[in-house]
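Batch 3, record 17
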Amino acid sequence: MEISRFVGWLILNVGVPLLAPIALLPLLGVGRMFKGRVHELIVRSLREGQLFWTVIAMCAAALYEAAVHLGELTGTPAEISLGRTIVWTAIAWHVAIIIISAVLVLLGTIDAADDDARAPSGTADEGVGKPPDIMVVSICMSIATAVSFTITHVWVS
Amino acid sequence: MESIFEYISHPAGRQKIIRALGLFSVVGASIVSAILLIALYLR
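Prediction for the assembled complex:
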C-alpha cells in the first residue's frame, strides 16, 4: 500500500472523526468570554462519553471493510482458513466494541441526568474538576479502536 | 432485569461497570491488535 494513500485514509477515517468535533473549540479562547478556559471547554465537550459515538462509527467502518474482505479471500485452503479466522476475529471484536460503547453511552447519559438532578440549581455548570471515569474510558477506547481499525484496514488492503 | 436497573441506578454501581468495561476493552483491543499485527507480519 502506498504511504500517501495510507496517510490519506488515516486522516479521513481516524483523524477527522476523532478530532473534528473538538477542532474549533480552541478558537473560543480568542474571545473574552472563554479566555483561558479552552481546556475546560474541551473537557466539557467530552465529559459524558461523547467520543463513544465516534468509536461506534469507526467500528462500523472496520466491520464493513472486514466483511467485504471475507468474500475476497484467495490462496491455498490453509491461507483462506487463516485469513477467515483473522477476519472473524476482527469482526467479533468490533461488534463487541459497538455493544460495549452503546452500553457506556447509556451509563454516561444516566450519569449526566443524575448529576443535573443532584446539583443545586445554578451550580451545574461551574468548573470542570477531575475528569470522570466515563471520559477517561472513552479516550482510551478511542485510541484502542483507532489502532484496531487501522490494523484491520492494513490487513484487508 | 430488575436487579440490573437497580444496580445501575446507583452511581457507585455505574462506576464499577464503566471501569470494568473500560478495562476489558483496552485489554481486549491490545490482544486483538497484537493478533492482527502478528498475522500481518507473518503474511
